[in-house]
Write a structure and sequence with these properties.
Helix content: 40-55%
Bound molecules: serine
Distance between the termini: 63 Å
Shape: globular
Number of helices: 19
Radius of gyration: 26 Å
Strand content: 15-25%
CATH class of the largest domain: Alpha Beta
Amino acid sequence: MNDLREKFLKFFEKKGHKVLPSSSLLSSDASVLLTTAGMEQFKSYFVLEKDPIKEIGTQRVATCQKCFRTSDIEEVGDKSHLTFFEMLGNFSFGKEINDDPKNFSKKGYFKKSAICWAFEFLNQILDLNSLEVYVTVFGGEDKIPLDKESFKIWEKEIGIKKEKIILKGKEDNFWGPTGIEGPCGPTTEIYIKGIEIWNLVFNQYYQNQEKKLIPLKSPGVDTGMGLERLTMIYENKNDIFETSLFLPLIKIAEKNIPSIDLRKKRIFADHLRGISFLIADGLVPSNKEAGYILRRLIRKLVTFAFLKKLSDKIFKEGLVQVILQYKNFYPELSKNKEKILEVFFEEKKKFERTLRTSLKKIEKFKEIGAKEAFFLFETYGIPKEVLEEIVPQKIKFSSQEFEKELEKHRKISRKGSIIKFGGHGISDKFSKEEIEKITKLHTATHLLQAALRQILGNHIKQMGSDITPEKLKFDFTHPKKLNQEEIKKIEDLVNQKIEEGLKVIKKEMSYEEAVRQGALAFFKEKYPEKVSVYFIGDFSKEICAGPHIKNTSELKKFKILKEEAVSSGIRRIKATLEF
Ligand code: SER
């Protein structure tokens, strides 16, 4: 195993950077599902919501960040795509700037230092003269000007020939924001052997929810370099899975299944890394959001093992290999070793049961169209990916057709008489009185979410909600335990809004309009064209199917019963009302 990670961090430490640990894969940022980039944990520094000097004593930081990108999940299996990867990055949150690459102060820096150091680092570990190197620079688009500064630095300071500096548009060389709003700006990218190695982002703007670019008072630097790609160049390989990062896992796959094909081997190696790291960060398989991603990764491997009649050995060896390989840098892996194995094998067992019944059900179909696929999913929980894996010859539908079928169903269940609260139908289960209580607790849940965002910050994102006639449960993203003072403030704020007697008003509008007006939406949910938005005074706005009470004064008194952890980065509040 090489030590590129350590080399990178040491290099930037010497340039005045503070080396910080990776943040969890379960993002505390409301606008992304899983952590996709190193900069995410620093968003509040970039927008000066927090002062980096006060918090961490410097404006320069370097990390190696665990990242997970779901966008490439279907692509995994070729020689370069991954779900989980590590991103090396150096960052500057500049309130004061010293952009002299020879000066290693605690002050922020900008384009000159970032570019010079990136080149210096690569030059130290690679023989750049012998490698084909070119760079890209933002060429200007949509009234945003060409990044002349970066162009000049590459040409004059570094000495890259003009023809090796390629101008690109917004699509390629403008980063961010991640999620619906945030810092963003032009980028410059370094390519080696035709592969994008390092992305240097110069955060100069803030894009708000209306997609307007506002210049940032203090520009920042956010760079990201995939450790796996860098390793591939460093070890002179043409395939990410042939590097020392993946070889041990590939070997385990080959040893256990001599006939395994190349794609499957790579999927095995990629997914086992993802699974281990996600579980270590506290995720468990579920049917929603991040939990569903983990479930899909596990199911993919389990389906394969099921069809090949593999024993558990391959998975045990694989998971233990990931833990051993990464435990020094990511101690959460060894700390959660038992849990990783337990969660994986528990889900495996459950899914094997589904698979056994699935096979029987599927046998009955000669052909499977979108309707049948949806039926199998709805009734027996057989995901479309499993059909694709088990009976590809029977499949007679496209992903779009299946999506359409899902959408149709979602619309029906929204319009239908069943009232849904966090996924539970309450139609026949409860008495009229109980439904009244649930309705009140439902409005209280909206007040609670708005209060959480006001007191703790806008990173709060709903991760789940469950209401019974007795109490409400609300899960949300937040990196740490709430203290007594915070809990009291939240409770007081909700009670204040109850006392104010705010009107609860429902308005129908397009989804875009709702988001434009700042209404909270449940992430990743697919919404129909028209949605209802519930306004509680001007305190809370949420897209929601209802029902709600008419005025907050109907609620009397709100009480928080308990605050606890669900998993790392996710908290739960249990609360109730005086009835
Ligand atoms: N945020 C940028 C990226 O992910 C640079 O770190 O590529």
